[in-house]
Amino acid sequence: QKEVEQNSGPLSVPEGAIASLNCTYSDRGSQSFFWYRQYSGKSPELIMSIYSNGDKEDGRFTAQLNKASQYVSLLIRDSQPSDSATYLCAVYGYNTDKLIFGTGTRLQVFP
Amino acid sequence: DTAVSQTPKYLVTQMGNDKSIKCEQNLGHDTMYWYKQDSKKFLKIMFSYNNKELIINETVPNRFSPKSPDKAHLNLHINSLELGDSAVYFCASSVGSNYGYTFGSGTRLTVV
Are the C-beta atoms of residues A105 and A21 closer than 8 Å to each other? Predict the structure, then answer.
C-alpha cells in the first residue's frame, strides 16, 4: 500500500463547477496535511494546510480532514481554467519526520 | 527577491560525469530539503538538513552527497552520473518539517 494515495486523473470539470480532489494515507500517526498545486514545468506551490479534523476554508478552496478514515480532500469552488494543474497531497508523520507526497491528481477545467 | 533559488535550472551532461546543484533560501528557515521528481511526477524526499545537520538520508545511492555550509544553503553533488538520475530535482525549505515547504524552481537534469 502506498503511503499517500491519489487518483491520477485527469479530473475534468466545467468552468464554474466544484472540483473535488481526494487523498488517503496509511500512517495513522500523521499530524499535518497539505495540498500543493503544480503547474506543468513549475515547482509545487502550497495552497492549503490542515491539522485538525473538519473543514478549513480559504477563498475558493476548502480542505477537509477525517483522521479516523485517514482521508483528506480539497474542494475548489467556481473552478477556473487557470486552476488546471496537478494537485499534490502531502502528509507529515511525526514517526517518520518526513513529508510524503502522493502522485498527484491532474485537474482540467474546461470553458 | 526569490525565496528559494536553485542553480542551474537545466543541466545536460554525459554519463559518468560529476555535477553539482546549488540551493539558497532567504526565508530564514532552519530546515532544507532535496526532493527528486521522476518522469511520473512522483516527488520523493532524498535528504533533509536542520541548521546544517543531516536529519534525513533516504535510500539514495552514495553517489549523491548533500552539503550544507550554512543554514541558508544546501547543495547537492552527484558523482558518476547515470541515465536513471535524469529527473527534476527540487530544493525546499521550511520553518520545521511539519509546516508547509517552499520549493525552488527545480533543476532539470538530463543524463545522456
Answer: yes
List all residues of chain B from 69 to 88 with a beta carbon under 8 Å from chain A: none
Question: Which chain A residues contact residue B31 at CB under 8 A?
Answer: none
Q: Model confidence over B13-43: pLDDT tens digits?
A: 999 999 999 999 999 999 999 999 998 889 9
Q: Chain A residue closest to B101 (CA)?
A: A46
Asked whether the bond before B8 is cis by omega within 30 degrees of 0, the reply is: yes
The secondary structure of residue B45, as a DSSP letter, is E
Query: Strands B31-37 and B43-50: what pairing?
Result: antiparallel
CB atoms B43 and A101 under 8 Å: yes
More confident call, A61 vs B71: A61
| pLDDT tens readout for residues B39-70 | 888 999 999 998 888 888 887 899 999 999 99
